[in-house]
Description:
It is a single chain. This protein has 113 residues and is an alpha+beta fold. The protein contains 3 helices and 5 strands, in the order H-H-H-E-E-E-E-E.
Amino acid sequence: xxxxxxxxxxxxxxxxxxxxxxxxxxxxxxxxxxxxxxxxxxxxxxxxxxxxxxxxxxxxxxxxxxxxxxxxxxxxxxxxxxxxxxxxxxxxxxxxxxxxxxxxxxxxxxxxx
Length: 113
């Protein structure tokens, strides 16, 4: 069973993507991998309007535990949804690293599968 906090972190980033709040994502991730402009460009280049996926999609996250990491770390991938397509070919990839009772979140990539 997946940790609730992992799902919560992913849901928060998806909510912010759908709302177009890229600067807020950059603040959460401290722009470790993608800055706000890169996130905005990836969404803009796809050319469709993001929407929140059905809640059950968060049960289908592709989560891989990173072996031999100093702290618990996960690589997470989720397909994003658009108003035009439903489940789209656009994929969100995150790295989550456990820190105390929470996770540090990094957006690794947003790209077409």
